[in-house]
Write a structure and sequence with these properties.
The structure holds two protein chains of two kinds. Chain A has strands at 5-7, 10-14, 19-24, 31-37, 43-50, 55-58, 61-66, 71-76, 85-92, 99-101, 105-110. By secondary structure, chain A is mainly beta. Chain B has no helices and eleven strands. In chain B, strand 4 (31-37) and strand 5 form a beta hairpin. The chains are: A mainly beta, B mainly beta.
Chain lengths: 111, 111
């Protein structure tokens, strides 16, 4: 069963704008990870944030985690057409043996 | 290329036939995972190996599905008596610590 839910399901923006995607989950987690998937391809790991962290940065990506609200957000700044993809959050419990993915946010960045 | 590889990339089969997929993880990774992804959804966990031991299986993994990792390196996923509902992308991932690295997937179409 899926654990995370991304919001919105789809997002369309112009190149140069910022994109914000949200993820909510249901149970206690050890960490939360964001992945990108281009159409018909495998998933690419973007960033991992642990349950005791509140914010992390990686290049143009900023991830926040609020464990009290069981939610996370992914911000992509200064978006590019190449950022067009589906973005998934995945949560891992303390045994970390399986990750639970949401249904993803489909991001379209128009040139 | 030292990433996760999967073979074949595409498979078309007739209902009732058996199919087998192979996954070669990143060489130093002791953990290997199988996921299934249908159109418009995130990946769903199927099973997990630590070295050669299969430690966890999802309820999604019916008795028609079997996975092996005989020497703790590559893994195979076999589906017996395929059904049209088995049509999906089958993803393999490997990890050493928390981050899972995904292969390109095997897309299965059951006619």
């Amino acid at each position: 069963s899926q654990q995370g839910e991304e919001d919105p399901q789809a997002l369309s923006i112009q190149e140069g704008e910022n994109a914000t995607m949200n993820c909510s989950y249901k149970t206690s987690i050890n960490n939360l990870q964001w992945y990108r998937q281009n159409s018909g391809r495998g998933l690419v790991h973007l960033i991992l944030i642990r349950s005791n962290e509140r914010e992390k940065h990686s290049g143009r990506l900023r991830v926040t985690l609020d464990t009290s609200k069981k939610s996370s957000s992914l911000l992509i700044t200064a978006s590019r057409a190449a950022d067009t993809a589906s973005y998934f959050c995945a949560t891992a419990t303390y045994n970390n043996n399986d990750m639970r993915f949401g249904a993803g946010t489909r991001l379209t960045v128009k040139p | 290329d030292t990433g996760v590889s999967q073979d074949p990339r595409h498979k078309i089969t007739k209902r009732g036939q058996n199919v087998t997929f192979r996954c070669d993880p990143i060489s130093e990774h002791n953990r290997l995972y199988w996921y299934r992804q249908t159109l418009g959804q995130g990946p769903e966990f199927l099973t997990y190996f630590q070295n050669e031991a299969q430690l966890e299986k999802s309820r999604l993994l019916s008795d028609r599905f079997s996975a092996e990792r005989p020497k703790g390196s590559f893994s195979t996923l076999e589906i017996q008596r395929t059904e049209q509902g088995d049509s999906a992308m089958y993803l393999c991932a490997s990890s050493f610590l928390e981050t899972q690295y995904f292969g390109p997937g095997t897309r299965l179409l059951v006619l």
